[in-house]
Write a structure and sequence with these properties.
This protein is α/β, with parallel strands linked by helices and 256 residues long. The protein contains eleven helices and nine strands.
Length: 256
């Protein structure tokens, strides 16, 4: 796709690891405001990188009112997090038109399987966040975590991005665990409580996705682990990251 549309441009791809930022939000921020705070943290991180690299504006794919965090009120609160100009070229575009364009240019399939930090989005998110209340929630967070995420940014030439990661399609999927497999439920604790995972022949460990990178190395390396989430997308992403870190005892549990 890049070769087709912009191969003449020399572009660097910046990837900021947000797991620990998400963990801070989930642990400390009021449930209704998590989505807005997450977007604000993303803009803050993007601003830091933009200022360091002389980039005059930020661009997002938000469309007005498409989801709860994208009401005009919430977008205004989100924009306050940065002094950078924020461009939203899709702001007034209908969702179906966005999907049609993605299909036309060849990005629809990629977008469909792209994991999101969906665990941050509340069941009843606010559509009219108040700036003072949002800042009150953010004050509960350890903001050094955000700076650490920016410090840990990975920079890759755009034409080398696919070479730098293991294809998500190479992750082994299992619909039926082997008898000795341990299933790791990486869903948010609220999801785990609402729909507990039960297996007759396998042990289950509850380890939310945002704590996986930190706590997985402490698990028995002689065991084999299957990551589980509702849709299977987040578990594939997390398995991919663990494999890239050298863990070879990780697959994904996707019930048939």
């Amino acid at each position: 796709i890049w070769k087709k549309y912009a191969s003449s441009q020399r572009v660097r791809f910046y990837s900021v690891p947000f797991q620990q930022v998400v963990a801070e939000i989930l642990k400390n921020v009021n449930h209704a405001m998590m989505g807005v705070v997450l977007k604000r943290m993303m803009l803050k991180a993007a601003e830091k990188i933009a200022l360091e690299n002389g980039i005059p504006a930020l661009v997002t794919g938000e469309a007005v009112a498409q989801v709860s965090s994208q009401t005009l009120t919430n977008l205004s609160v989100i924009d306050e997090a940065t002094s950078q100009l924020v461009l939203r070229p899709l702001a007034t575009t209908d969702k179906e038109d966005i999907i049609a364009t993605a299909r036309k240019i060849g990005t629809e399939e990629f977008a469909r399987v792209m994991p999101e930090y969906c665990g941050v989005i509340s069941d009843r998110p606010t559509t009219a966040a108040k700036l003072d209340k949002v800042k009150h929630e953010e004050a509960k967070m350890d903001m050094s975590v955000l700076q650490q995420a920016v410090d840990d940014v990975q920079i890759t030439s755009i034409d080398k991005v696919l070479d730098s990661i293991k294809s998500i399609h190479d992750i082994e999927l299992k619909s039926i665990p082997d008898i000795d497999d341990i299933v790791v439920d990486i869903r948010h604790p609220d999801e785990q409580e609402k729909a507990p995972l039960f297996l007759t022949n396998n042990s289950i460990i509850r380890l939310p996705f945002y704590e996986l990178a930190r706590k997985f190395p402490a698990l028995d390396p002689e065991k084999n682990y299957l990551l589980y989430c509702d849709k299977g997308i987040m578990s594939e992403l997390q398995a991919q990251e663990l494999i890239e870190q050298g863990c070879e005892n990780v697959q994904v549990y996707r019930p048939g």
